[in-house]
Amino acid sequence: MEKLNFVKDGVLKLPPGFRFHPTDEELVVQYLRRKVLAWPLPASVIPEVDVCKADPWELPGDLEQERYFFSTREAKYPNGNRSNRATLSGYWKATGIDKQIATCRGNRVVGMKKTLVFYRGKPPKGTRTDWIMHEYRLLSAETAACNVVAVENWVLCRVFLKKRRGGSTKNEKEVPTKARALSPVFYDFMTKERTGLNLASSSSSSCSSGITQASNNETDDREESSTCNSFPYFRRKT
For the region Disordered, what residue ranges are annotated (predicted)? Predict the structure, then answer.
């Protein structure tokens, strides 16, 4: 059977009407675990990208959607365990405590999820932005149980821009102009000067693209529901 490949030039491209929406368990068990153990993946949907070699808005993919990447962790110091998460314009800073990722059958812990926030500038005086990253790592016990030594220190990263109320972000300049939504224009109809207003054009209907955009109102402490599916699948948008 031919392996499905949905990654082109480092960007995930799914058929119209579908989106890649895995749970934490599916990301760790079906994708990260297989990647670390060099096992075949269910499908090529996650590109390999060094996340810290570029700023979050420069990473490949749609800035308005969640983006998933396989990346390797680089040690900050030669003899230390801390990761180097500095980019060209800033750095990723961990927040909160790591969350355990367990299977729904047997409640066995298989991995950990770390939440990071992107800051512009140099530590410790960086400016916080609304860019969030969830970094998934596999427990070393998983590779030991399979008698396999991991060749590379793979992690799986989910990067997204957190939306605030009203759809705005804390740092609008973080998103290129082409990725921003057009700002609405308000008119004061209580004033006498109404010249130049084309009310007919404003009431005309626009043509729909036919592709439903999924909501991306994510928070850095989002809780996802876990499923018992043994094989990840693509969910059709409703």
Answer: 199-238
End-to-end, the C-alpha distance of the chain in Å comes to 29
Does residue 42 contact residue 32 with C-beta atoms inside 8 Å?
A: no
Q: Which candidate, 95, 94, 83, 7, places its Cα nearest to that of 52?
A: 83
Ordered structural domains, the chain, with CATH: 24-172 (2.170.150.80)
Q: What is the pLDDT of residue 80?
A: 55
Q: How many CB atoms lie within 10 A of CB 16?
A: 9
Q: Omega of the bond prior to 78 within 30 degrees of 0, cis?
A: no
CB 120 within 8 A of CB 142: no
The Cβ-side half-sphere exposure at 157, using a 13 Å CA radius, reads: 25
- pTM beyond 0.85, yes or no: no
> What pLDDT was estimated at residue 181?
46
Reply yes or no on whether the pLDDT at 225 is more than 50: no
Say how far apart CA 190 and CA 49 lie, in whole Å: 54
Q: Residue 140 belongs to what H/E stretch?
A: helix 140-145
Query: What single string gives the DSSP state of each residue in 64-103?
Result: TS-EEEEEEPPBSSTT---B--B-SSEEEEEEEEEEEEE-
Q: What is the rounded distance in angstroms from the CA atom of residue 237 to the CA atom of residue 209?
A: 15
